[in-house]
Amino acid sequence: MKKDIKIIIQARELSERYPKKIFKKIKGKYVLQYLIETCLKVTNSKNIFLALSKNTNRKILSNLLLKYNCNHFFGSEKNVLKRYWDLCNYYSINNFVRLTADNILIHSSFIKKMIKIYNNNKYDYIGNVNNSGFPEGYSVEVLSKKLLHKVKNNNFKPDTEHITVGINFNKIKCLSKKIKLNKNYSSIRLTLDYPEDLNYITKILKYNNYRVPTFEKVIKIANKYKRNFSKQRSLYY
């Protein structure tokens, strides 16, 4: 039976490394808009939910929500796990795709592929994080609320911010599948954590006429515009 799978985009304005990054603009559009528009190519707006921190700028958001008619929820600033749990309870969500607002170069076709794998199997979790060969900033995860409840009860501290660390490091028993590539592209960085990331993402989008490239194409563009990155990468993914 086909599962009812929603898409949750987690976003907060008060990033310690790059404050207000979700409201930075590329070619006249907020960064957050690029990801919302990608999700709208996967499903309709009633199935898209923004998991926002309570301190996020509501004036800018109100305009975006009006434009795209997405659902939204304001939750804990630091405890992202609680934000997800409260949102899922409020909207009665049982299965969802987890995306983060700083990964805007994920193509809709890859999100559809991940949903299809989850739908056609009995997994509690599928994801392409943690030694999967994918670039940093190309993470898509699909999981059940039932598993999220296990995560919450497991009390593994990194999960309060990163949600699925315990799952990916086998600290939580579940039926899961890791999506891996045959080739390793983990040295490529596509996420948005610093101002120089914004410049790099802008360059990639400009090369593709400000459209999000397919996975194959984003790898080609990234290889064309190789860069050195010396700042701290994700501790877990």
Question: Care to describe what's here?
Answer:
There is one protein chain. The chain has 237 residues and is of the alpha/beta class. It has one domain (5-224): Spore Coat Polysaccharide Biosynthesis Protein SpsA, Chain A, CATH 3.90.550.10. Helix content is 36%, strand content 16%. It contains 9 helices and 9 strands. The chain has helices at 31-39, 58-68, 80-91, 108-119, 145-154, 159-162, 165-168, 195-207, 215-224, and strands spanning 5-11, 25-26, 29-30, 48-53, 71-75, 95-100, 125-127, 141-144, 176-178. The chain has a 7-stranded mixed β-sheet with strand order 5-4-1-6-8-7-9, sandwiched between helices. Strands 2-3 form a two-stranded antiparallel sheet. Helix 2 (58-68) links the parallel strand 4 (48-53) and strand 5. Helix 3 (80-91) packs antiparallel against helix 5. The mean pLDDT is 93.
Give a short synopsis of this structure:
The chain is α/β, with parallel strands linked by helices and 237 residues long. It is 36% helix and 16% strand.
